[in-house]
Amino acid sequence: MDERRRQGGDDWFDEADERTAPPPAPATARRRRRPAVTVGGRRLVPAGSVLVAGLVGLGLALVLNSASIQRTAKAMPFGLQRTLAVTAIRPVAGLSHLLFLDRPSQAALALLGRNRPAEESGSGLSDLGSPTASTTTLRTPTAGRPLRIWVGGDSMAESSGAQVVQYAQQTGVMRATLDYHISTGLSRPDFFDWPLRLAYVSRVLQPDVAVAFFGANDAQAVRFGGRVLGSETTAWDALYAQRVGQAMDTLLRGGATRVYWIGLPIMGTKPFSRTVRVLNAIFRRQAATRPGVVYVDIWPMFATPGGAYSAYLRDAHGDLQLMRQSDGIHMTLAGASRLGVAIVARIERDYHVGGQAPAS
Amino acid sequence: MDGLRESVYRRAGLSLLFPTITFAIFFVAVFIASWLLMPRLRLWKVFIVLAGCVFYGWWDYRAVALLGVVALANFGFALAIARARGAGPRKAALIAALVFDLGLLAVFKYFDFFVVSAANVFHVVGLQVTPPLIELALPIGISFLIFRIISYVVDIYRGTLEPASLLDLAVYVAFFPYLLAGPIARASEFLPQLREPRDPRRIDASRAFFLIFAGLVKKMLIADYVATHLVTGVFTTPGRYTSLEILLGIYGYSVQIYCDFSAYSDMAIGLSLLLGFELPDNFNAPYTARDMRDFWRRWHMTLSSWIRDYLYIPFGGNRKGVRRTYVNLMAAMLLAGLWHGAAWTFVFWGGLHGAGLCCDHWRAARRRARGEPALRDGFWPVARQRFLTFQFVTFAWVFFPTRSDFASPFAVLSRLLTAWGGVGANVTLAVVLVIVLGVAIQYVPARATGLAQVRFSRLSPVLQGVGLALGFFVLNVVGPQGPAAFLYFRF
C-alpha cells in the first residue's frame, strides 16, 4: 500500500498527505534513541504524577460538586448501585458542607437559576378543588378561540409529543405546548416531581386538553412509607394506580375538558412488553373511572398484523418504514409522526374540528 | 424489566459514557492497574482485553461475544493469508476474511435496510411482500470495529504487516478508548506499540488532559446545548419553527456534529495517551477548509484515509484517466455515506460530497493546466473559499440527522424557504453565541493551544489537579444535567 502511494499520484486528495507516510515508530523506541523528557516543549511526566494530578482533580471536583452528585446518586433506580453511590457520596457531601466547599456550587447554580425545584409556583394539590367530571359538550375551537393543549410526559413525549404539537398547530385552531422531562415518570417524584409540575400546569396553564405520555420509566422500585416496593408486586401496582389516578385528577381540576392518556406501545423485548401490558391495564382502569379521561391504546398501532413487535411497519401508502428506534422502545420520526397524526385526529373528532390532520 | 432498566440507564447517562463519574472511576482503576502491570507485558495485555470487555459489555454483555468472534476469526484469516503459498490461495484467504467481516456488518447493520428497500420497490410495482427481517440490535461502534480489522487483514495481504499473536490482536480489537467511535487506528499504527512495555516515566499528560477537557467542553457545553435548545426540535418538527430558526438550526447541527464527534475523538486520544499509547488525530479544524478536498483532509481523517487506501486506490484511484477518477471518487463517497448508516439519506449525503469532490478536482485540474495554483491565495479569496465550503458542508448535513426518509430533510429545507416573517422565540443570544463559538474554536491557532499545553506541563501535579478540578466544577455548573449519547455511536 505504502509502496503504491509512493509510486503514483494516486492520492485521494491530489496532494501528499501526512498519513501516507509509514506509521511512526513506537514512542518508546523513539525515546530510547533520543531520551528527551519533552515532546513539543511539553514535559513528559511519570505515571505517579499523572495519578496525583488526576486524583487531586477528581477528588476536589467531587468535593466542590458533592451536593449535585448526591442528588444524582439519590435519583438512581433503587438497587445495589444506588446504595453504593449514596453511601460513598454521603461523607464527602458532609465534609464539603462542613468546610463550606459546597457553597460556590450552590451560589453558581442559584445565579444561573438551576437549583430551583421542579416548578416554583406550584402550590400543591389541596386548593385546586374537585376534579371536573367532563360530561359536558366539548366546545368547537376556532382560530379566535383556539383549543389550548398541554402535551407532557417522559422521553416518549420528546418525539411523539413534538409531533402532536406540530400537527395541532397546523390545524389553525389549536395552540399546543410541549413539556417533557427525560428519564422521569410517576414512580419517582424524588427524581422529578411530576405531581408538583402537574399542579402547576393545572393551576397556571389551565389547558383545555392534556395529552399525557407516562410509564416508560415507571416500572422500577419505589420508596413508600419507609419501605422499598419492588415493581412486580401487588403493593406497587396499587401505589402506582393511585399516582396515575391523582395525576389524572390534577389535570382535570385545572379545567381540562379532556385528558388523553397515551398508553405504551408494544416493546422490542418480550419481558418489557409484558410489563407494559400491566401498566397499560392500570392506565385503562384509572381512565375508565374518570369521565374526562380518554385512554388511548396505541399498542395495535405499533404491532404487526399478527400482533408481534417489528421496528418496521407499513405506513399509510403501504411502504415499510422504520418506526422504532434501535432500543425497541422509542419512536423514530416516522413512528412519532404516525402517533402524532392519530392523536390530533382523535382530538379533532372529539372537538368537532372541520379540518383533518395531515396524512401519515 | 430489562428494557425498562435499559431505558432509564441510557437516558440518565448511567452507561459507561466518557463524561460520567462511573467512567472516571473505571478509568482511574484501569490507569493504576495498567501501569502496575505494564512491566509484565503479557499480563498487561490480558488485563487490557478484560477491561475492554467490561467497557463494551457495560452497554450489552452479549456484544462482548462479537469482539471475541472478530478477533478469533481474523487471527485465523491472517495466518491463512501469511502462510498461503501462491497468489491464488492468498487472495482466497483475503476474500474469505472480507466476506466474513463485511458479512457481520451486513447482518447487523444492512440486511433489514436492503430487504425493506427491496420490499418497497416490489410495492411500487404492485406486489406486496412481507420480507423476512432479522431486527438485531446494532452493536455500538461495529462499523469502526470492522474497518479497523479490515485494515489488519488487508495490510497482511499487502505484506506491510506481520500477523499478530492472538493476544495482541485481542488487544487491538478490544482497546476501549477507541472501541465505540474511533479514531480508526490502523493495525499498522497500533500493533507496533505493543511490542515492548510503554515507558511509565514519560507520559504526555499535559496534552492528554487538554484533549480530555477540550472534549468535555465541546460535548457538554456546545454540542448538547445546541441540540437541546434548537437543533433537535428543528429536525423533528420543522413546522413549529420560523425560517430564521430553521437556518440557525441547520448551522447548529453543523456545529453539534463537529463538537460531538471530535469531542469523542479528543477524549479517546487523550485517554490513550494516559495509558501510554498514541492514536492518530481525527480532526483538524474542518470548518476552516478551503474546498472539499481540504475538508476531507481535516474531517474524520482516519476514515477518509481509510477510504482512500482501502477503497479509492483499489478502485483505480486517479491512475485510469480523468473520467474513471471521478467515477472512483463518487463510488468511494457513496460507500462512505452508506458506512455512516443504513439509509438512503446517508447515501445521498455521500453523493453530495462525492459531487463536491469531483467539482473541486475538476476546478483544480483546470487551474493547474493554466499554470496556476489549485486554489487562489490571498485574504479575500481564502475567506470566500472557506465560507463557501462551510455552507456546502453545512447544508449537506441536513440529510444526516433524520435517517429514514427524504421527507424530513426536504421538510426542513422547504420550511427554511417558506416561513419568513418572524424571528422566532428560539433565536436567542445564547444559542447564536454557542454556534459562533463552535465555529470560532477551529480558528484558534495551534500554536496558542500548544503554548498553553507547554505551560500546563510545567505546573506541579497538585496545581494541575487544582486546575482540572476548577474545570470540572465549571462544567458541572454550566453543563447539562446528564450526558447524551454521542452521535457517532450509532455508526
Summarize the structure.
With 360 residues, chain A is an alpha/beta fold.
What would you note in describing this structure?
- The complex is a heterodimer of chains A (360) and B (491).
- Chain A has 360 residues and is α/β, with parallel strands linked by helices.
- Helix content of chain A is 42%, strand content 12%.
- Chain A is built from 11 helices and 11 strands.
- Chain A has a 5-stranded parallel β-sheet with strand order 4-3-5-8-9, with helices on both faces. A two-stranded antiparallel ribbon of chain A has the order 1-2. A two-stranded antiparallel ribbon of chain A has the order 6-7.
- In chain A, strand 8, helix 10 and strand 9 form a beta-alpha-beta unit.
- In chain A, helix 4 runs antiparallel to helix 5.
- The N terminus and C terminus of chain A are likely disordered.
- Chain B has 491 residues and is mostly helical.
- Chain B folds into 2 domains: 201 residues, no CATH class; 202 residues, no CATH class.
- Chain B has 19 helices and no strands.
- In chain B, helix 9 packs antiparallel against helix 10.
- The longest helix of chain B has 38 residues.
- In chain B, 50% of the residues are buried.
Count of DSSP-assigned helices of chain B: 19
Number of strands of chain A: 11
Runs of chain B with pLDDT <50, length 5+? 1-15
Judging from the principal axes of the Cα atoms, what is the shape of chain A? Answer: globular
Average pLDDT of chain B:
87
Structural class of chain B: mainly alpha
H/E element string of chain A? HHEEHHHHEHEHEEEHEHEEEH
How much of the sequence of chain B is in beta strands?
A: under 5%
Taking pLDDT < 50 over at least 5 consecutive residues as the criterion, the unreliable ranges of chain A are 1-10, 15-31, 117-131, 356-360
Helix content of chain A: 40-55%
**Backbone structural class of chain A:** alpha/beta
- CA radius of gyration of chain B is 23 Å
Largest sheet of chain B: none
Number of helices of chain A: 11
Give helix % range of chain B. Answer: 55-70%
Strand percent estimate of chain A: 5-15%
Order the strands across the largest sheet of chain A as they lie in space: 4-3-5-8-9
Counting DSSP E segments of at least 2 residues, the number of strands of chain B comes to 0
- The H/E string of chain B reads HHHHHHHHHHHHHHHHHHH
Molecular shape of chain B: globular
Instruction: Tell me which protein chains meet in the greatest interface and how many residues each side has.
Output: A-B, 102 and 108 residues
